[in-house]
Please model this.
Amino acid sequence: MYILGLSAMGHDSAAALLGDSGIVAAMEESKLARTRASEGIPREAIRYCLERAGIGWRDVVHVAIASRPWRAWQRQASFRARLAPRAPVSSGYFVNKASGELGRELNNVRIVRQMAGAPEGRVESLDHHLCHAASAFYASAFERALVVSLDEKGDGRAGFVGIGEGTGLREVQSLTLPHSLAWVYSQVTKLLGFRPHADEHKTQWLSICGEGGGDADSGAAAVKGAAAGAPAFTELFLEMLRREPRGPAHLNAKYFRNGFAGELSFTHEFYRRAGIAQEPAENTPETRVPEPLRVRIATGLQRACEIIVCEWLTALREEFKERSLCLAGGLYLNPLLVAAIEARVGFENVFVQPAAGNEGTALGAAYYLWHQQCRRARIAAMPGPYWGPAYSNEEIKKVLDNCKAAYHWCDSDERKLGEAVRLLQAGKIMAWFQGAAEFGPRALGARSLLASPWAPYVKENLNDYVKHRESFRPFALAIPEERCGEYFECSPNGRFLTTMAKANGAGRRLLEGLPPGFLLHGNLVRLHVVHAADNPLFWKLLNRAGENAPAPLLVNTSFNLFGEPLVVTPRDAVRSYFCSGADALVAGNFLLEKR
Model:
């Protein structure tokens, strides 16, 4: 039996296929379409899932869509109706906009029914936050857990609290608009000159500069000044975002315009308290918030979010007496927040699956129908998320020959690992294209750029010649699971890069010998803990690289060009390799080196 899950088709659309053997395939539309933003029906992702399983639409028993368009429209219309007396123009505008979105989404559902050739009952529309929750609970190893979802405005609400037990999942609380931490995080991201709904991770990493744990754009002086002013901004955001301690987020109307518009929605009072001379109209150098004020704002927002979420989750733990916690929704793509929850809230177990954003709802929708409507037994806990396309050496060779690329053939995995270690020890940046692609936004050793952290100028070379990204963003380090405890304390979420590790005494001594930026404030480290069962080849590479290094550590970052999603196909890999400053590419058993 097969169930096809589709994410909400507003943004970051994806498809996932569930079968009797578990998760068969899952992939984001953006990676296959080679665009950062994707919306609408994930046609390429659907095509891939069916081809991977070797089936057609007739073999799919149910199609589950992680959105209920009518319910979303009703909630947003109700919210706007309450605002109408104070902001009639913007409320009317957004009701009309929501009506247009409703029409598009209903039409997408109609088209999916046509594609499936299905009667009414075969295509199911499910609540967005329920699918977020299902993607976290059913992917976990927990028999019972508290399940919490927080995102911007999925299906017209800000969050969901539920209890999962066995194959059951029930809602116990709902968070209404406009009280959305994720929405405010996007607003501040835009204020800081980044792209909302795309660059929230930049705001998150900019915040560590205010703790003295990174390199801000304007240097050490800016960082020092930012650290001095960050607590005042934490208090400002706490005043803006909560009504009482230990409660959920609650926006203070004093700091937000009545319209809650798509553009910056802060009032004059916020700009006065923040010390911003004028309200930025556009994200241009002339109106951009100056340094080190950007760092202080980012730090204050991040710390306030951590305080609010941790206090609220602590209150939920005490109320519902649960020992395990599952998290999903775009807000939990923030590993600093997840690490704070693990350290402060008191749950024995915390689980965040690797595709916690909108794309993960495709998996959650399929999970929910599998357990609730089909009454099937729990699927085994989520392994490594390598459910994307994989390519044989023959397929890779066809692409290399077509591109007239010069390559060397490695006749065994041992030869391939030996060549890779040689490159890494020589200080080279190596593109690593092996096995099935990852599902989710992070590279986990299948579509990765790798380097030795002891190589000279490794961070500068990666930032300036390959990634073309801001210097304050830290790189992740990968380590085999068996060796992790020697240097770091890390929860099981390190398996998916969804949390932060903490360096112990040996880890601090190890990382202090590396370039600045790997060891962050509070001894935090971005760490990918690699399990042999998840990715045996990458696990072997780490161990081989560690034989002639102080530790089995490699820098692991995503293999993609600036502004593009992770590579998926051999052609994507070859193009990204030749268009970047990467020194070598290991694709399947083929080795390419630049002079």
About this structure: Residues 214-226 have pLDDT under 50 and may be disordered.
